[in-house]
Write a structure and sequence with these properties.
The protein contains 5 helices and 5 strands, in the order E-E-H-E-E-E-H-H-H-H. It is α+β, with helices and mostly antiparallel strands. A hairpin with a 2-residue loop joins strand 3 and strand 4. Helix 2 packs across helix 3. The protein starts with a strand and ends with a helix.
Length: 152
């Protein structure tokens, strides 16, 4: 059994210690915001925050998060998250939408750390997150828009 906090709630899960956090979150806790994309930490669809750090949950054993605070896309909240979500809608970023939970998690992490990121900084931060629909220009535009809203 592993104990941790997820989206502000303390939980104890019974999955084996080597079970990827993604499967625990999706199958045992029924939180489906983080997606399975590649299973090899290459695409970012499975991104969650572990103690505030963007983490690929598809390759993170649940035992490694014992005692930590996990935030999934469902639990993402606050001024930065609200600005990012509003910008995503304003700029119609999502096409198929599959990668968007990971993209939004990454954008929130970026704007929390570097609220004035330029194009190069955005591209660097977002490059590990794959979008098969190639909505990268809209993602960048939305991140700039969210940053502007946060400064207002």
């Amino acid at each position: 059994m592993t104990k941790f906090s997820i989206n502000g709630q303390d939980v104890t899960v019974t999955s084996g210690p080597d079970t990827p956090l993604l499967w625990v979150v999706r199958d045992e806790l029924k939180l489906t915001g983080a997606k399975f994309g590649c299973g090899a930490a290459q695409c970012g669809a499975c991104t969650v925050f572990v103690d505030g750090q963007a983490t690929r949950s598809c390759v993170t054993p649940v035992s490694s998060v014992a005692g930590q605070k996990i935030t999934t896309p469902e639990g993402l909240s606050g001024k930065v998250a609200d600005a990012v979500r509003a910008a995503w809608q304003k700029h119609d970023v999502a096409q198929c939408g599959y990668c968007q939970s990971g993209q939004i998690m990454a954008a929130v992490a970026l704007l929390t750390e570097k609220p004035d990121a330029d194009d190069a900084g955005i591209d660097e931060a977002m490059s590990p997150y794959l979008c098969r629909c190639a909505s990268y220009a809209r993602i960048r535009t939305a991140i700039h828009s969210a940053a502007t809203a946060l400064r207002a």
